[in-house]
Every structure is written in C-alpha cells, then in structure tokens.
C-alpha cells in the first residue's frame, strides 16, 4: 500500500529540515552518531536458518513421517532390505530439498553485491570518498554519469540528470530528474525528484539528499521480502494432501485389522506385527525416488528446450499453472529501443529528419542514452563522416534539449533535439520535404501537436528535431536557441516481439490465462496488446490497486488482465491475490523490481539476461526470452506430472487393494494370507518394477490443460480399482481352498504370484485413459515392469524359497491363475474409463 506521505512528496528544504541536515553535508561526528543509531547502509543477508529446525520441519510432512515409521517397522520385523531402501530414499530426498531451499540466502547476497562500493559525500563541507555502507540519512551525495545510486533520496540539484530505473520500474526509457516534487506522484515511477538505491545515472550530474538507507530503502524492502519464508508451492500442497490421505487410509485399515483380530482372540503380538506389515504395505516407499527421477528426467528434456530448472518440483507446478503473469519488456517486446519513424511536417517519414537527429546524437558527449543509440544505429550504412562538430550545449533539465553546432561542406547549422513541447515552442518556421521554409502559423502548429499527441497515445516516445542557420558562428549562443526551424519528429518504441502472438495463443490454448503486469503507463500497455492482438480484457492501475485491500484486490484480479504503473509491492500483491483464489500462478520477470513477485509465485521464472537478483529468486530460467520456450516447458511439466500421477494412482490403488484383501481374508482364514515378510517383499518388488514410469509418454488430454493434484480423483480411482483387485484376489482364495485344497505354503505362493501378475500387468492398462493397445509404453517402463514380474515369478523356484515361506504350486493352479489374471485385465480395461474420468478445472 502507498505510504501516507512518501518522502518524494516533500520539497528539498522541508526534507533538509526533517533530517536536520544542511546543503553543506553532515559533520563527521553527527554522521558517526547516525551510523551507530541506524546501522550501516547495506542489504543484510538473511539470517542462517538452523539446519536441525529445517530438517525437523521436513520430517513433519505426513508422507515422510509415514515412510520413517514404515522403515522402523520393517527394521523391527527383520526386513532390513526394506528398511535400508526406505531410509536412503528419505535421506536423499530430504537433503535435496534442504540444499535447494537454502538458495534463498544467495538472493540476499546478490542484492548486497549489486550496490556501489564508494560514493562522493559532503562531510564537514568538503567532498570525500566514503564506502557506501557508511552513508546515513542526511548525507549529501554527489553523483555523475555512470554512478550507481547508493541509497534512497531526493534531488537537490540536477544538470541533465538521466537515470536508468528499468530494474525497479520496468520502464526501458531513461528518466529525467528534477528538483521540485510532483505532489500528485503516488508511486516511485512518477517521482521525478527521487533517486532510488540500485538505479544508475546514465547522463548528467545530480546532488542527492539521502533520506533512507539499508533495508529502509525500496531496494532493501525487496531484499527483506526475499529473505522471508517462501510460501508453499502447489507441488508441496499436493504432497501434503497425498500424505494426509495415506495416513487416513493406513490408520483406518490398521485399527480395523488390529481390533478385529483381537476380538477374534488371535495372538496379540502376531496381530500387531500383521497390522504393522499392512501399514508398510500401504506406504509408497519409492514415491520420493519416482518423483525425483521423473522431475530429473523432465529437467533434462526442458534443458533441451532452453529452460534451466533450479527447483525440480517447479516442473510439476509449471504443468499445473493456469495463470501466467508477465512484464512486457523482453517477453512481449524486444527489450531494445528502436527508431520506428521520423515524420516531417506532413506526417510522412523524412530522411532529412533522421539525418539531423543522428548528427546531434553522434556528436553529443557523455553516456549515450538508448534513444541516441537507436538514432545512430538507424544511420548504419549511411555515412555521417562529412559532418564536423564545432560546439555543443549539453542537455539539462531546464532546457530539456541538446544543441550541436556542426557543418557539412559550406553549410553550418545548429541542430537541436529535445522534448517536443519545449522545442516546438521555440520554432517560428518549419521545413517541408522539398526544403522550403514555411511560417509556423497556428494551423501548422496545431497539426504538429495533433501528430505528437496521436503517436504518444499509441505508447510511442517522441523527440523533436529543429535547426537554425549558423553561418560564421563558432560557438552556440547561450541565449540564442530561438527562432528555430522545425524539421520533424523521431518516434521510438520498444518493438513487439513477432513470436509473442503465437506463443500467447499456444499458452491460451493450453488453458493458461495471460496477465500483463508492468510499471509502464496504461496507453503503452494497451497499444502493445492491441498490436499483438492478445486476448486480454480490463485494466487496473497502480493508483487503483493502492486503494484496494487484499480481499477487494482478490475479487478484481480474475476479471482484469492488464495492470499498469504498478510498484514491486503491488506485483507481489497481485500474485498472492491470484493464489488466494485457488490459481496456480507463474510470474516471469527480469528486474530487481520483479524479484519479490517471482518468489511469491508458484512458478518463478526469469531469463538468461536478467539481473542476478531475479535469476536467483527464480525457479526456472529461460535461456531464450520467448514465451514460446515457456509453452514447450509447460507441455514438459504436464508430461512429468502425468507420469508421477501414474505411479501414485497405481501404487495407491494396488497397495490398497492388496491390503484390503489381506485385512478381509485374515478375519476368515485360520492363517495369514501372506507373512509380514512376504507383504513387504510384494510391495518392494512392485515399486521397483515401476521405476521406468518417469520415461513414459503422456496422453494428449494430459497435455491439453493444467494438471493439478486431484485428491478426489485419486480417491475415486482407488475406490474403483482397489476393490476390483480385491474381488479377483478373493476369487483366487476361493479357487485355491475350495477347488484345489492347497496347503498354506502353496496358498501363499500362488496368491503372491497372482498378486504380482495383476499389479504389474495392469500398469500397461491404466497408464493411459485410451484403449491399452492404442498407446505404446516407453521401452524403459516395459523392461523394468517385466523384469520385476520375472523376479517375482522366479522367487518360488529358488533354492532359498523355503526361507521366505514359498512352495511351488502345480501347473494346473498356474493355468487357473492365468485365466483369473486375464479376466482381471479385461475388467480393468472396462472400468478404467470411469476411474480415470477427467475432472473439469475450476478455473479457466
């Protein structure tokens, strides 16, 4: 929200009185007292988080907690293999999360290194060089072209001061600084008398009164927000929901079995060990590993698509993203100032106008502004060597123009370029395309003003070009810039990126709504989206956002796609408001001002040429600043998510079906259907057979819309496919006991083999919502699944099978089991259309 009264709304004299300072600077003693009181002018790094506390927070995740309990039970029951695998998986996944979260500390460090190291300060009335960290409020700082602004303050004096504020405002054009405040300035972008920490002077000189230092600057506020706790992402919310679901299923099944066994008079210790084995059997031990492999595989493919992934789980969030917030610079535009027109007085482009402007820009001393560079670049291939410079009167804020005395052959003229409204007032004549000089009467002046206003309304930036004869003149008269001849305008734009329209269309077709959030003025943004024909609607300005509380903003953001003149704080508020409405939000930006919003989003995106701060805050970095690259990444994110969900659906339904069978059968059978060791072995072999899932392809439907954690859909899938598996398991029991009258070891062996056959082979059925025969699985998935199946079927044949409680059943039993497996696979193919029914997204 906007402060009651921003520091830039005060006059220089008022600010000096408020800060008890003078134009001659502070005394050394007073500065030392203030430094002791306020602390050094530096962006403090985030406090180091205690490693043990971070570790405990992660172990509190329901899924991780289940895995640790399962590992303990496996160790207590003698299943050291399961104990080792579960423990190693938990340690590796937790360590990976710890390393990646601590990257936030590097963000604050990047901010700290981005500021200037020394500044020229008035102390005891004399200019001295001081480390920037020793600046205090009330100091007078002298700035020249090329200097970084070392703190927040107001301008006391300026001579042609032009400041690059793109990193804070997103505005690509240099900002001219003035002394007197603009009392209506609500945001930093409108504060022409303010200088902000981290920006840079690209022209002229300025004297600044330091008002805020360190973390109290706007730059510091950004650093402080980055050092705070990052909100949970969509992926983390989904994992938490999944863990909670598994906890509930586990508790229900374990209590049911334990109480039923005790009620039936079964031995308490045996009943407890069996119930604990069921708990382990319901646990997806390899889920962290499957997720890591799937996300890692996705990161490799995204790297080929020119997207560098810093946080692996962001791949999932990218696939779930349904809103993308983007600045215009660099993604919708080329991020470079281009001369797009140089109309003469008739409104048509006149090469004489471009030539005069380029001569002025070429001979202008000091750092070249982006406008000057665009003028010189436009004349590439056309020689200006026959022009000779004689004198120059540099830019200053009062005049708002640059004058150059130059000659070409025998012609000597004074060329002036500057602000249109200022320069036009100094002209008495105009030159047409033929070279004739015409009086600049009211009618022509009105037409030239209309031409200027028309271009400005299109979001274009204009410079006016004029000249006057200077025969025999050696110097520019300090009071002689009048009676000029108006030549025309030079028109500049940050040009739209040709690929943006197609890229936005691809994202929209994929169910992602685009919202443009910029520090630029509303006409600039509206003209850009019109030029690109983007499907956006509504506009909200920073001034309007400042008047809305968070609830009101959340109600507005869904209907509005364009946000103009917004501050860094407001960008973050917009992202949070969208997330509060249930959206998965991506934010792409490249400046310091974008960093808090990048970090607040579910998916923080930046580009290769962005500032260090933006890149450190981002989860992904686009090596090409093109939304088309992002569209490719979205498809990859959805593919990765689809494969993770395959494992989750298969594992949850399969484990639940097996454990449901065990729980029910154990109430009626005089023996356990499987021993605790056999339960764990079944679960382990099944999990290992699924490690090829991350390499699998995804259905086109999975790539066509945002994909999020659908716990209700998972429950529906488990409720349909789990009992179906149990139904065939119970049919197997009836067949083995009622028809073949097998013994306990043969019974356990036969059911173990039937269970493994149905669990692993059904993977090829339910990996796709289409008919199983119409979608080929990846070769890696095929190999791992069949290898796991082969291992399960070979176990009863090994010499050590007896130690595991196995005994080989007869060939007739194998044939009967094969028929049951075929019946199960056919039933699964028929029912999966209901179990995999897509859920309509709640958001566009």
What labels describe this entry?
elongated; eight-stranded mixed β-sheet; 844 residues; alpha/beta; 31 helices; single chain
Please give a structural write-up.
The protein has 844 residues and is of the alpha/beta class. The protein is 49% helix and 16% strand. The protein has 31 helices and 23 strands. Strand 1 (118-123) and strand 2 (126-131) form a beta hairpin. The protein is elongated and about 120 Å long. The protein starts with 11 loop residues before the first helix and ends in a 9-residue tail after the last helix.
What is this structure, in a nutshell?
With 844 residues, the protein is an alpha/beta fold. It has 31 helices and 23 strands. The two termini are 29 Å apart.
Strand-helix topology:
Elements: H1 12-18, H2 28-38, H3 51-59, H4 62-76, H5 80-101, H6 104-113, E1 118-123, E2 126-131, E3 140-144, E4 152-164, H7 166-169, E5 175-176, E6 194-195, E7 200-212, H8 218-227, H9 234-263, H10 268-281, H11 287-304, E8 307-309, H12 314-320, E9 323-326, E10 338-341, H13 351-363, H14 370-378, E11 387-393, E12 401-408, E13 411-418, H15 420-425, E14 427-431, E15 437-439, H16 442-457, E16 461-469, E17 484-493, H17 500-509, E18 513-517, H18 522-532, E19 539-541, H19 542-546, H20 550-557, E20 562-564, H21 568-580, E21 585-588, H22 595-600, E22 603-607, H23 612-617, E23 620-622, H24 627-668, H25 676-689, H26 700-703, H27 711-739, H28 744-761, H29 763-766, H30 779-794, H31 811-835
Parallel strand pairs: 9-18, 9-21, 14-17, 18-20, 19-20, 21-22, 22-23
Antiparallel strand pairs: 1-2, 1-3, 3-7, 4-5, 4-6, 4-7, 8-23, 10-17, 11-12, 12-13, 13-16, 14-15, 16-17
Helix pairs in contact: 4-5, 4-9, 4-10, 6-8, 9-10, 9-24, 10-25, 11-24, 12-24, 13-14, 17-24, 20-21, 24-27, 25-28, 25-30, 27-28, 27-31, 28-30, 28-31
């Amino acid at each position: 929200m906007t402060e009651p009264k921003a520091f830039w709304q005060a006059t220089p004299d008022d600010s000096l009185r408020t800060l008890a300072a003078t134009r001659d600077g502070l005394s050394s003693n007073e500065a030392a007292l203030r430094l002791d009181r306020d602390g050094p002018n530096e962006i403090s790094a985030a406090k180091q988080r205690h490693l043990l506390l971070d570790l405990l927070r992660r172990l509190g995740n329901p899924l991780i907690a289940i895995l640790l309990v399962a590992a303990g039970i496996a160790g207590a029951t003698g299943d050291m293999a399961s104990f080792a695998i579960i423990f190693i998986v938990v340690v590796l996944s937790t360590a990976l999360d710890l390393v990646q979260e601590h990257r936030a500390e590097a963000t604050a460090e990047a901010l700290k290194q981005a500021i200037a190291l020394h500044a020229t300060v008035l102390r005891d009335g004399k200019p001295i060089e001081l480390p920037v960290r020793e600046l205090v409020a009330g100091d007078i700082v002298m700035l020249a072209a090329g200097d970084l602004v070392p703190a927040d303050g107001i301008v006391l004096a300026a001579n042609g001061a032009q400041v690059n504020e793109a990193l804070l405002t997103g505005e690509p054009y240099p900002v001219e600084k003035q002394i007197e405040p603009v009392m209506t300035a609500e945001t930093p972008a409108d504060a022409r008398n303010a200088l902000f920490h981290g920006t840079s002077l690209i022209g002229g000189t300025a004297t600044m009164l330091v008002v805020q230092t360190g973390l109290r600057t706007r730059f510091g506020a950004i650093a402080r927000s980055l050092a705070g706790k990052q909100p949970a992402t969509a992926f983390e919310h989904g994992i938490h929901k999944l863990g909670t679901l598994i906890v509930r299923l586990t508790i229900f099944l374990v209590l049911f079995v334990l109480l039923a066994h005790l009620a039936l008079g079964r031995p308490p210790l045996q009943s407890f060990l069996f119930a604990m084995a069921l708990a382990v059997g319901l646990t997806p031990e390899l889920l962290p590993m499957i997720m890591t492999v799937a996300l890692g595989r996705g990161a490799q493919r995204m790297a080929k698509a020119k997207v560098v992934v810093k946080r692996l789980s962001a791949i999932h969030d990218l696939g779930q993203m349904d809103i993308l917030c983007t600045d215009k610079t660099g993604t919708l535009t080329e991020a470079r100032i281009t001369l797009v027109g140089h109309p003469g007085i008739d409104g048509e482009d006149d090469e004489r106008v471009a030539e005069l402007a380029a001569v002025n820009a070429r001979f202008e001393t000091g750092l070249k502004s982006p406008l000057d560079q665009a003028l010189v670049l436009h004349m590439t291939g056309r020689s200006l060597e026959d022009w000779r410079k004689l004198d120059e009167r540099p830019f200053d804020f009062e005049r708002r123009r640059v004058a150059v005395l130059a000659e070409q052959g025998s012609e000597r003229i004074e060329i002036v370029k500057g602000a249109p409204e200022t320069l036009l007032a100094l002209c008495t004549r105009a030159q047409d395309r033929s070279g004739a000089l015409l009086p600049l009467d009211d009618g022509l002046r009105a037409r030239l003003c209309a031409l200027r206003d028309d271009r400005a309304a299109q979001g274009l930036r204009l410079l006016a070009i004029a000249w006057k004869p200077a025969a025999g003149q050696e110097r520019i008269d300090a009071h002689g810039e009048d009676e000029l001849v108006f030549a025309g305008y030079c028109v500049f734009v940050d040009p739209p990126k040709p690929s943006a329209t197609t890229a936005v269309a691809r994202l929209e077709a994929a169910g992602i709504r685009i919202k443009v959030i910029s520090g630029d003025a509303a006409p600039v943004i509206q003209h850009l989206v019109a030029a690109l024909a983007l499907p956006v609607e509504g506009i909200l300005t920073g001034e309007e956002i400042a008047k809305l509380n968070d609830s009101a903003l959340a109600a507005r953001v869904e209907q509005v796609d364009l946000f103009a003149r917004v501050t860094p704080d407001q960008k973050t508020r917009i992202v949070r408001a969208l997330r509060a409405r249930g959206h998965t939000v991506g934010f792409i930006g490249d400046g310091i001002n974008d960093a808090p919003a990048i970090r607040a989003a579910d998916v923080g995106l930046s580009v290769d040429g962005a500032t260090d701060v933006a890149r450190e805050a981002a989860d992904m970095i686009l090596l090409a600043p093109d939304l088309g690259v992002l569209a490719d990444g979205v498809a990859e994110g959805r593919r990765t998510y689809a494969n993770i969900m395959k494992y989750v659906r298969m594992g949850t339904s399969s484990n639940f079906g097996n454990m449901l069978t065990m729980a029910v059968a154990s109430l009626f059978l005089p023996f356990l259907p499987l021993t605790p060791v056999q339960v764990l072995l079944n679960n382990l072999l099944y999990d290992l057979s699924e490690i090829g899932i991350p390499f699998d392809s995804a259905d086109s439907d999975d790539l066509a819309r945002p994909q999020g954690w659908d716990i209700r859909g998972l429950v529906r899938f488990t409720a349909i496919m789990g009992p179906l598996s149990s139904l065939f398991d119970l049919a197997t029991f009836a067949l083995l006991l009622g028809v073949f009258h097998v013994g306990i070891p043969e019974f356990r062996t036969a059911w173990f083999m039937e269970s493994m056959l149905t669990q692993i082979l059904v993977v090829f059925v339910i990996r796709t919502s289409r008919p199983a025969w119409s979608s080929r699985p990846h070769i890696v998935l095929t190999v791992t699944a069949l290898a796991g199946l082969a291992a399960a079927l070979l176990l009863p044949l090994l010499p050590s099978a007896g130690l595991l409680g196995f005994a080989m059943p007869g060939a007739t039993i194998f044939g009967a089991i094969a028929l049951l497996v075929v019946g199960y696979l056919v039933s699964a193919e028929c029912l999966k259309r209901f179990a995999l029914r897509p859920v309509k997204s709640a958001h566009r």
